[in-house]
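Lab notes, practical 5.
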Amino acid sequence: MSHLQRAVCFFEEDAAIPAGAKPLMLEAVGSCPILTWVSRQLQADGVQRFFVVSGPRFAEEARACFPAEADVTVSEQGTDLTAFLNTPDKVLVLPRAAFPMAEAGPGFAYAAPGYELQEAWKVRMTNAVQAAELVSGWLPVYGQSTIAELEELLERTRGE
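Output from the prediction step:
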């Protein structure tokens, strides 16, 4: 796969997150939010521009997961996302909470040209995008049980 320079990360819809809770990407694994792990891995992979699909309720906390100098947009506005996707280059899409893990095979994360994503997402959000390629290295985070498993794995890794 060609070098990816942009990435889109989706949070759960605000309405689906109970009061007092937060999106899975903002839950901590180890000492920092999952989105911080994602940010570090993507930057190490050469990604330079980031779009986090989130409402204003979590925008500040999401932005804090990236270095101050990083090019990050946090928005739930379709027009902002369309502008971000205005490129023929491939864009990584994490359609749900994910944790970077080299051992994870291809599954749900994918990359597609920005123009293809723009076209596919004009009518509705879908993962059925022509020209999309599955991307390995991302473990889906389904809930607190996955976070607990990741905590155990990190603890074992630290102990080795």
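Observations recorded by the TA: The helical segments are 34-44, 59-63, 78-84, 114-120, 144-159. The domain at 6-159 is CATH 3.90.550.10 (Spore Coat Polysaccharide Biosynthesis Protein SpsA; Chain A).
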